[in-house]
Inverse folding.
């Protein structure tokens, strides 16, 4: 079976990138022909991506004009040239109208799958808008599966689950004496809306008030780094906090996983996170917010596989961390977390789930031909004067090209515009589904 994966190339860090880097070689080893294509432009750049992930052997996908019509043409041409049996879309929304166009032109008869990695309103809006041409959704989280049906309108029979996977070495007990000094790590993108990084300074204050001696390593980068460094300045100066910046997978294994006693997660929502499974695989305990996405997944169970606290409640988080001064509790959580990941989130378990999901997609009844996709908005005067297709023809003939200010503008992840109110409403509704009875704002 020939599988085409379309993914962004602007981002070299993160769980989605790590997932793809492990999944594709595994599928190839299992006998599938897997082709990866990534955009090549100003913000999405094939060269750095190919160097970061050489095992993917990613092909470049160029849009000479930079317009929306140009993106659709580029993908439709690729589909026509390869005619894969299965296409996995990874946060590139133009795949869906491009596939419908290639189908109508008789150049492509494969199946299109949305891989869902986020609990964000715009992706469920995309499902409603383009669902007539999407054969299936494969989500990495149980709650995301529910939302794909309830918010995205997908037939539940076409919503499949396949989790992220991590390498699981033999279990090792956390080192050091937690009663003397608790060695903690926080790993992720330094941003507030999802990751809630600004919970860390008040958490340190709460730990200080309890008389805990801690060492906190923060691995990650992002837009909130300067503000976070200012807030953490007293602890950084005193040696309590280390800001490591971006840390690749090799350095995470060498400096973080297995070298700290616990991972702290402060997130509002997650569809993994991979960092939790990686920490557990290394023998670290996990102390986490009850983030939206943790309930239906059923992996982080309070006092069984992890210690949990209400999202944003730093006093409760500090109290749970204080319990880790008991070596017996730390070892029990370490063993239970390692066993959980070995059973449910190992690379082998994940690969088997993804291969099973792909086979299920191919076994689904084919979709009826849907309505023609609406044309993208006019990209400029040529489109308004001549229509998008003739405007695009002339634009290419003249060598005109749009310059985009961001990666999301150059190759959009979704068809919507981020709306704070819509995201808040989704998060509240998702929380009620995920953890019934818990307070969600």
């Amino acid at each position: 079976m020939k599988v085409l994966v379309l993914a962004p190339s602007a981002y070299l860090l993160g769980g989605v990138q790590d997932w793809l880097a492990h999944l594709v070689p595994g599928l190839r080893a299992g006998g599938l022909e897997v082709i990866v294509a990534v955009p090549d432009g100003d913000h999405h750049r094939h060269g750095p991506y190919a160097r970061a992930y050489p095992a993917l052997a990613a092909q470049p996908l160029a849009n000479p004009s930079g317009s929306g019509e140009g993106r659709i043409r580029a993908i439709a041409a690729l589909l026509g040239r390869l005619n894969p049996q299965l296409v996995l879309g990874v946060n590139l929304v133009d795949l869906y109208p491009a596939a419908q166009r290639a189908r109508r032109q008789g150049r492509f008869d494969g199946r299109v799958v949305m891989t869902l990695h986020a609990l964000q309103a715009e992706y469920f809006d995309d499902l409603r808008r383009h669902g007539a041409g999407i054969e299936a959704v494969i989500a990495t989280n149980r709650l995301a599966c529910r939302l794909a049906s309830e918010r995205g309108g997908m037939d539940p029979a076409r919503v499949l689950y396949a989790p992220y996977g991590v390498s699981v070495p033999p279990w090792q007990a956390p080192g050091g004496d937690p009663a003397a000094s608790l060695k903690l790590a926080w790993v992720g993108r330094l941003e507030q809306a999802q990751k809630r990084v600004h919970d860390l300074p008040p958490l340190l204050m709460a730990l200080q008030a309890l008389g805990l001696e801690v060492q906190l390593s923060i691995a990650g980068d992002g837009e909130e780094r300067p503000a976070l460094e200012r807030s953490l300045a007293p602890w950084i100066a005193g040696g309590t906090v280390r800001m490591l910046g971006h840390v690749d997978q090799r350095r995470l294994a060498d400096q973080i996983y297995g070298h700290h006693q616990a991972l702290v997660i402060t997130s509002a929502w997650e569809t993994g996170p991979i960092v939790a499974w990686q920490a557990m695989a290394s023998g670290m305990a996990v102390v986490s917010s009850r983030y939206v996405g943790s309930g239906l997944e059923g992996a982080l169970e309070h006092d069984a596989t992890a210690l949990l606290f209400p999202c944003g409640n730093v006093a409760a988080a500090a109290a749970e961390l204080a319990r880790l001064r008991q070596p017996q509790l730390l070892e029990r959580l370490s063993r239970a977390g390692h066993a959980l990941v070995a059973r449910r989130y190992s690379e082998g378990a994940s690969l088997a789930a993804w291969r099973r999901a792909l086979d299920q997609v191919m076994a689904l009844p084919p979709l009826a031909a849907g309505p023609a996709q609406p044309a993208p908005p006019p990209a400029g005067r040529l489109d308004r004067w001549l229509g998008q297709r003739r405007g695009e023809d002339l634009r290419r003939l003249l060598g005109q090209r749009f310059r985009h200010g961001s990666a999301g503008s150059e190759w959009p992840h979704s068809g919507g515009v981020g709306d704070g109110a819509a995201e808040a409403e989704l998060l509240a509704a998702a929380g009620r589904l995920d953890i019934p009875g818990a307070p969600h704002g």
